[in-house]
Amino acid sequence: MNYQEEIAIGIVLLVLLRSISKFFREYLAAPLSIYLLKLGYVKWAIWVRKKTPPPSVCLNCK
Amino acid sequence: MSKLEPNILRVALVGNPNCGKTALFNALTGGRAKVGNYPGVTVERKEGSLVTLSGLKISILDLPGTYSLDVKTPDELITRDIVLGNQIDEKIPDILLAVVDATHLERSLGLVFELLTLGRPVLLVLNMMDLAKKNGLDLNFSILAHELGISVVPTVATRKEGMAELILKIENLSLQKNVSLPFSTSWKKPGLDEIRKRFSDVDRLLDLSTRHLTYSVAWTDRIDQVVLHPFWGTFLLLVVLVFIFQSIFTWAQIPMDLIKSGIIFFSNVVAIFIGEGPLKSLIVDGVIAGVGSVVIFLPQILLLFLFLLILEDSGYMSRAAFLMDRLMGKVGLNGRAVIPLLSSFACAVPGVMATRTIENRRDRFTTILIAPLMTCSARLPVYSLLIAAFIPNKVVFGPLRLQGLVMFSLYLAGIVSALCVAIILKSTILKGKKPILLMELPSYKWPSLRNICIGLIEKSQLFLKRAGTVILTVSVLLWFLASYPKAPAHSTVPPISYSYAGQIGKIIEPWIRPIGFNWKIGVALIPGFAAREVMIGSLATVYAVEDREHGVAELLGSKLAKDWSTATALSLLVWYVLACQCFSTLAVTRRETHSFRWPAFMLLYMTGLAYMGSYLTYHLSVKMGLG
Amino acid sequence: MINERKVRLGDLKKGEKGSIVEVGNIYSSQELIKRLLQMGLLEGARVEVMHEAPFGGDPMAVKVRGSLIALRRSEADLIEVLVYE
């Protein structure tokens, strides 16, 4: 029972982390990078900007 | 990605709507496309690629159809901006393929003349040559090419004819001129007189190069005698709509049952393999049940999209919009809203996706916002359960029984509320001038099987990918909320009351007591959010009904009948008609409206509406003695 | 004897035909005029009313320059047509 529980909780945490990071990337990263730029932290702004996702979904593409 | 590679030849397909651009795109790229959105708008970006025999890599961008470059609607603007090189993040196309319907030269060549004024390399593609020739088109290609100053390629995109010549001409063109001009072209908005002059240029050109102009409208006209007949046309439309609606319900049943048994089989296998415990519960009760409830709708969605594609491809869709324009306009909706709203009776998710055919943004958003009010098929299990448990099967009149009547009025309530909300929306936040209807009714053509299959695969992939990943996430998280913290060893209460979900249920209880709900209903509504039918399972869990193969419904029904008043049951029914109990709908709304604002609004207004409705129902029923 | 009369396209009934004399005036939306021209509804073009929608005959469908165009009567009112009977 114990190891099952560990794996289950582990999966839940993974999913939670992934959804949080996805949320961050899609909605928060761009405004955050602009804000950082305003504050003058150029290097951080670029680092954050690199995390934003590309705009398209690939279907069957080569 | 092609945007970053410098040695790729960028080709864009420009042309009127209905000229067969999509077929041409499929013929060139084999239907493989990268689909996305242009930044900031809901216009779809479709890009594919091919490699020629000599090793040249070509990227093909399918641009939204347009009649001219001087336009206002968002997708036509995208076409113009890309062609001029003004679109953000897009390099200007190296070569423009002006795609023209050879059976409608008089109208289509206007755009070609406009493109020629840009000074960019252009190739004229005369598509649908088979239809043109069959109708007796007599066109001199060399005169046409000479007068325009560009190469002309006849094609039949649906049969992949002319592709080799086209690719060859593209290659030649890329070698001839210096195609990577670094500056953007100048373009002035043409005045009205310039537009008039353009058409007289078209006429002059056609006089020189054509001996017999044709229109494939002969049989189109004949068919339209029936299709656009005020009475028979409307009748036919009704038949078509009922047919689509009926088949989505019945034809989809068999594959849906198959998928259902597959899912049950799969979960049994997993259960045996893993053995009791939280992991098995997570996978079987959480993941498989959650994702399964989405996958089960795939047959309905595919069927709906099949019909949509056939209707669009054949040219019937715009005629349906034409017939329904007046009626829909009375509620402030677009004629093209009929089909998405109708499909929402099966499931709002494909219904929302189907609103893509509505170009006007305000009309489209209104339709999306009211689509979930159409009684979707997922509500049926809940309706059946509650009606069977609480409504006596009295005879009302002749063959009519009370239970059937209640079911029918629930459906009616959905439709009426949708129309009311539409009127309200259109007179307040989505208010706008009635958009210009002015549209072309394209000639009828046989839908191309190939294009339809490619379209179906594309849509189902998108659906599965998006809805699937979101539902997967939600299922896992909900499972956690409903399973932890665990109940202590010797409790008599169902374990769910100890979990976070149960605690949330108890917290919101004072809020839902005015509408007749207790905390158990509150708890069950939470997983019911992932998918409407799941609520039955959650209710069963909360009322600690054991899950035997059959009989859960009857068992649960009788338990509920003892625990609830009829007023509560009626209140819950009304809640189900109006409330937004569907995460997938919100997810797809977010995708289609490209923002968080609209799904949030949808959730808020529907919850408010449902609360009011339930409140009224509950208190009215109590007054009538059903409490 | 040929009977000629000038009417607005929006007033024509199914089956009537004529040729366009004028599109738009100083009061009408430039945007709408532009779109009408782009669709091929220009001066000199021959036009025939092919269909009328149910529930009131609005919108209407006309054939012009080989294409079938649907438009509301309010939009069609911007076009003046010379009808010959």
Describe this structure as you would to a colleague.
- The complex is a heterotrimer of chains A (62), B (627) and C (85).
- With 62 residues, chain A is mostly helical.
- Chain A is built from two helices and one strand.
- The radius of gyration of chain A is 17 Å and the shape is elongated.
- Chain B has 627 residues and is of the alpha/beta class.
- In chain B, a hairpin with a 5-residue loop joins strand 3 and strand 4.
- The model of chain B has no long low-confidence stretch (mean pLDDT 82).
- With 85 residues, chain C is an alpha+beta fold.
- Chain C has one domain (4-84): Roll (SH3 type barrels), CATH 2.30.30.90.
- Helix content of chain C is 15%, strand content 41%.
- In chain C, strands 1-6-2-3-4-5 form a six-stranded antiparallel β-sheet.
- The N and C termini of chain C lie close together (9 Å).
- Classes of the chains: A mainly alpha (62), B alpha/beta (627), C alpha+beta (85).
- Chains in contact: A-B, B-C.
- Chain B binds chain C through residues 67-68, 70, 72, 103-107, 110, 192, 195-196, 199, 213, 215, 217, 220-221, 224, 228, 230-231, 233-234, 318, 322-323, 325-327, 436-443, and chain C through 24, 30-40, 42-43, 50-59, 61, 63, 65-72, 75.
- Strand 1 (56-59) of chain A pairs antiparallel with strand 2 of chain B, so a sheet runs across the interface.
Outline of this structure?
The complex is a heterotrimer of chains A (62), B (627) and C (85). With 62 residues, chain A is mostly helical.
Describe the strand arrangement of the main beta sheet of chain B, using strand numbers.
2-3-4-1-5-6-8
* Sheet of most strands of chain A: none
Count of individual beta strands of chain B: 12
Strand runs of chain A, count: 1
Give the helix tally of chain B. 26
